Every structure is written in C-alpha cells, then in structure tokens.
Amino acid sequence: MKLTTRKEKLIFTFLISGILALLLFFYLFLNHTYGFSIPCIFHEITGLYCPGCGITRTFFSLLELDIVQAFHYNALVVCLIPIFVIYFGGQLYGWIYDKKIKIFPNWFWYALLIIAILFGILRNFDCFSFLQPTIIS
Length: 137
What we know:
0% strand; mainly alpha; 6 helices; single chain
C-alpha cells in the first residue's frame, strides 16, 4: 500500500494515532487494575539500572501530570521528550507534505547517545543515587 496524497497520509496518521491511543488506554487499564507492568530485563538480569529504567512509570506519572515524580523515575526521559516530539513532529510534517526536513544535525544524535550511556553508567554509583528510579513521598 503506497500512500500518495496528503489526505491519505493524514487519514493513515489519525488511524495509527487512534490505535496507539487505544493500546495505551488498554495498558493503563491493565496496570491500574491488575498491577501489570513491563519489567526491565537488563535490571532483572544484572541488578543494574539501564538508561531506560523507570521509563514506564515516568510515562504514567506524566499522564497523571505529576512531572516531579516522573523526573524522579527517569530524569533523562523527561528531558528528552520535547526533543523527540520536535523531531517526530517535523518528520511527520515532512512525510505528509513531501518535504525533506532535517531537524537536528548528526552530531546532536551522537551527543544524545553519549549522554544516555553516561546517564546509564552514573545512575549505578552510590554518589549518583539521585538518578536511580525512586518513589517520592
């Protein structure tokens, strides 16, 4: 299936967005009703925190507009969300309007990769325990 017109692309975008919203609602329902959540395989195997540990709880906190708690679960993800919204929004715009858009230069993505690796390493040291996913009272 090749989407060629702007109208087809918009309909496809709204359809996929609706499906993703339904899946998110279903996952939220399972989490709040039955306590179902996706564990971090890396943490389960090694006992160490990866850069993504706490990401699910971060998104749940953001959906409940609890930004402080989301920041305590995973500060890196909270800081990266605006960057990815800008990037994917620009890419979606470029796809719909058949324009090639480069939002960020290549070095920017390499810098983000290095930051994520450093974040993943540092959050496992006791002196950086504030970077570990925690629940605040």
